[in-house]
């Protein structure tokens, strides 16, 4: 019963993201829609921030699961599929994406619980790079990177590639955000083709390039 009601509260709150936005999320409004007194909702989520955290973790986990489910045969195919899965999830869930990567909610400070879910996409991309290193398809550059040791340990990559991975990860969501929030309106004519080109260049940045086709004899 408790799990079911918790899920119902989160579902209604998710709908409120679309109508009122994260900054206006109200436990009282959620309780009213569920036909409950607000004090009852507070037993499940003591504050608005607790409810926001639940929505954020749920969003990161859904996005991460979508990217983890993407596949392909070659390193480049896997990389492009993972990037495309992130974009497709964002386009299908714009309000949830905005909660994760849009304007910060005034007064809200994300707790430690959100860190692991937030890193799931980066770990997928890092796994592809590690497989490329193991297969001898990606060379490890001898370069330093302004990336924390904690991040390098999390992605389990040498410093140079770890830095490039962080650049690719942040650029990936920059490209998605530009499209989703309308910054490429009247700028890009074919968003899917444009995104594929961006993702391919990001792949090249971490050493993933298209296989060379030998010339026909």
Can you describe what's shown?
With 217 residues, this protein is mainly α. The protein folds into two domains: 1-46, Arc Repressor Mutant, subunit A (Orthogonal Bundle); 56-206, Tetracycline Repressor, domain 2, CATH 1.10.357.10. Helix content is 65%, strand content 0%. The chain has eleven helices and no strands. The chain has helices spanning 2-19, 27-34, 38-42, 48-68, 75-92, 94-101, 115-118, 120-134, 149-155, 159-180, 191-205. The longest helix is centred in the last third of the chain and has 22 residues, at 159-180. The chain starts with a helix and ends in a 12-residue tail after the last helix. Residues 3-63 form the HTH tetR-type domain.
Mind telling me which CATH architecture of the largest domain this is?
A: Orthogonal Bundle
Largest sheet: none
What is the H/E order? HHHHHHHHHHH
Question: What is the strand tally?
Answer: 0
What is the arithmetic mean of pLDDT? Answer: 91
How far the N terminus sits from the C terminus, by CA atoms, comes to: 70 Å
GO molecular function: DNA-binding transcription factor activity; transcription cis-regulatory region binding
Domain HTH tetR-type: 3-63
InterPro entries: Homeodomain-like_sf, HTH-type_TetR-like_transc_reg, HTH_TetR, MT1864/Rv1816-like_C, Tet_transcr_reg_TetR-rel_C_sf
Keywords: DNA-binding, Transcription, Transcription regulation
């Amino acid at each position: 019963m408790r799990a079911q009601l918790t899920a119902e509260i989160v579902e209604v709150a998710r709908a409120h993201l679309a109508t009122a936005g994260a900054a206006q999320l109200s436990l009282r409004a959620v309780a009213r829609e569920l036909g409950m007194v607000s004090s009852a909702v507070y037993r499940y989520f003591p504050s608005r921030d607790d409810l926001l955290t639940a929505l954020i973790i749920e969003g990161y986990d859904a996005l991460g699961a979508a990217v983890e489910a993407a596949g392909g045969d070659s390193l480049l195919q896997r990389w492009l599929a993972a990037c495309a899965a992130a974009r497709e999830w964002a386009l299908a869930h714009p309000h949830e994406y905005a909660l994760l990567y849009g304007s910060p909610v005034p007064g809200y400070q994300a707790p430690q619980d959100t860190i692991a879910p937030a890193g799931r996409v980066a770990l997928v991309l890092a796994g592809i790079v590690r497989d490329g290193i193991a297969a001898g398809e990606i060379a490890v550059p001898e370069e330093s990177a302004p990336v924390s040791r904690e991040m390098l340990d999390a992605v389990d990559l040498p410093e140079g590639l770890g830095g490039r991975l962080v650049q690719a990860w942040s650029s990936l969501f920059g490209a998605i955000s530009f499209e989703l929030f309308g910054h490429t309106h009247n700028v890009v004519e074919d968003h899917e083709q444009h995104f594929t080109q961006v993702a391919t260049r990001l792949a090249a940045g971490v050493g993933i390039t298209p296989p060379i086709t030998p010339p026909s004899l």
